[in-house]
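Justification of computing resources. Each target in the renewal requires a structure prediction run like the one illustrated here; the chain below, 363 residues long, is used simply to show the kind of job we budget for.
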Amino acid sequence: MTSGEIFEPISIEGRSYTRQELLEQCRQLTGNPGVPDWKKEVFAFIGWFLGSSGEEIVQLTSGTTGDPKEVRLTREAMLLSARKTLSLMELKPGESALLCLPVKYIAGKMMVVRALVGGLKLVLAEPSGRPLKELTGPVAFAAMVPLQLYESLAHKDPLSKIDKLIIGGGQLNASLREELVQVTIPLVFETFGMTETCTHFAMKRINGPEPDPIFRLLEGVIAGVDTRGCLEVEIPGITKGKVTTSDLVEMDGSGEGFTWLGRYDNVINTGGIKIIPELLEQHARQCTGLECLVLPEADQKLGEQLVLVVEYMGEDPPVEEWLNCLRSTLSTYEIPRRVLAVSELPRNASMKPDRTSAARFLL
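Resulting structure tokens:
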């Protein structure tokens, strides 16, 4: 049954609670010095969510695409976002959901809210690189960041115990994406969202018989582009008006979604031509079969010139072969002026090559 917006009984770690019983449990656990901090944070948020009556929560952004900042979110916005995901994923009361993300970020909080609203049995795992290491039973739904997925696949942890998995918090690299295409269980969805939108507002299925070519907007999401070509999004009941991003996108003609092109902040201006490095990197990966980055380097004539940095372990990299391949698909101004082969590219917490740190190779 439901009590207001919350489905009762509430199941967490195999134990069922009424709303009042869970509130008392939250008070006890958050004050218990023997309880690990990550679990205290989970129950502290549950206590706030069950006990709040209209007030806002101050949420710090993850800082993935810039300096962390504070965003004020309402309980009602979280409820609306949770219902959208429950409906899209066709999740039913009594099914289980794995929480393996830290609740200090919005993605972790929203997994809790979905369980409370949808009557899902919440399974808790300490946030780590290998959240499935101790998983014993099946779960219907889970959310991970790319690093967790990478480590789970690398260590052959029981990913197939999950029915439906959403990935967020960073772009999937090419090799990981290719590996996922071969996976039949779980169904894997790449998500697109931010703190201001109470996590994702668009999804792309990346495996199974009918993968999505674009990020598809969730119901009720209004999206477009600004004069820079960057995504603007508004979600009635969730966002406070229109939210403008720095994500360059190409809107689908049907209005159902978009293709992500790259970050406006990363655009390289070479000889007056604006280049989106993420698009060139897709071509470079196809030509080299390796992970790579396209970086800007100061040039007296062009202002900035393109440098291709390739992660290559062997000796005598076939640079001319790579360049010939690129010349067959790219225009003259898109061809890198210089190619560097490095044994290892630096990576961020999402296992994505870190272009800021990689700039040291140009020195």
